[in-house]
Amino acid sequence: MIDLRSDTVTRPTLAMKQAMMAAEVGDDIFGDDPTVNALQEKFAALVGKEAALFVPSGTMANELCIRAQTEHGDEIIAEGHSHFYYYEGGAPAALAGCQTRFVEGRRGIFTGSQIVEMLRPSDQHFCPTRLVVIENPHNAGGGKVWSVDQVADVARACHEHGIRVHLDGARLMNACVATGAKPSDYTVDVDTVSLCFSKGLGAPIGSAVAGDRETVARAHRFRKIYGGAMRQVGILAAACIYALDHHVDRLAEDHDNAGLFADILRECPHLRVDPEVIETNMVYFRVPEMGGAQRFCDRLAERGVLILPDSSSSCRAVTHLDVSTDQVRTAAETIVNLAVESSR
Ligand SMILES: Cc1ncc(COP(=O)(O)O)c(C=O)c1O
Question: Which of 64, 139, 145, 280 should be mutated for ligand 1, with most atoms under 8 A from CB?
Answer without folding.
Answer: 139
